[in-house]
Amino acid sequence: MQRLQFHPLLKRIRWGGTRLGSVLGKPVGPESDYAESWEIVDHGDDQSIVAAGEYLGWTLARLVAERGRELFGSHRSDKQFPLLVKFLDAADRLSVQVHPNDEQAQRIDPRENGKTEAWVILEVEPQSRLYAGLKQGVDRQRLQSAVENGTVEDCLHSFPVKPGDCVFIPAGTVHAIGEGILLAEIQQSSDVTFRLDDWGRLGSDGKPRALHVEQALACIDFERGPVDPVAPKVISSSRHRLEELVACEYFVMRRHTSASPFPFVAEDRLRVLMMLEGRATIEGGGQSDQFPRGQTVLLPAMVDETTIRPDGQVVVLEAFLP
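Below the sequence we write its predicted structure tokens.
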């Protein structure tokens, strides 16, 4: 099975911008509210479509159903592709929100998953901040009072953010992405979000957007406290620097930084590769293709050894299933 590339699924949302096109090369239109590029998705009607090769036109759901062994390898037999892979452009600040865990999500919809996610920051503006977790000592009663009084920001832990930062957001973590941030995201395959606060803004219809205060409060892990960028675990620091950013029950994220060629050896597991910085040639299985910034490829478990040949220094994000 050869490596797979999919057509991006673009989402326009009021907080989006233009950098998915101008920076990452996505096929956006003239509008200025392109918020998300869903690179790999198998979630109901939202389906990645293979862009080239033997499986041209196949949905990811069909690949999972008919080529699952080749896709996942011998240690997984998933009925749904378990990850949702995205780029996000937050020209404006996102709402304050929280995602449920698996058990909470399945009480809403037995077919749904919880949403644990992680971000790697690509670009920021001078004022850009992330909001992740609650300040020490904030409990449910204090947060609920803040929602009622319009002072939720006083309860949130926040910090200035810079390119290269990685932030891990387990389900149950209150969070918001601040304005001016372009990032890559790996998450569970889920689209369940409970909006706790929307900074007092009005929607396009001139009315406040709906909040889900009770559902959000029920999902929040009030024991988590503040969340800061992760400290990468350095696996190799030679010419090819390899860091482990996140290792949780849903996914593992690693970052490769190199100006020299480096391989991905078949290990009976699938991998997702996202080009975060630079450009390269990707080779394997008799194929040689350009791998520019903003592109995402899926290496099935049964793919031949794949080599990245950088054109200058590159930063590649790798994600795989534990």
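Helices lie at 19-22, 60-72, 102-108, 140-149, 213-219.
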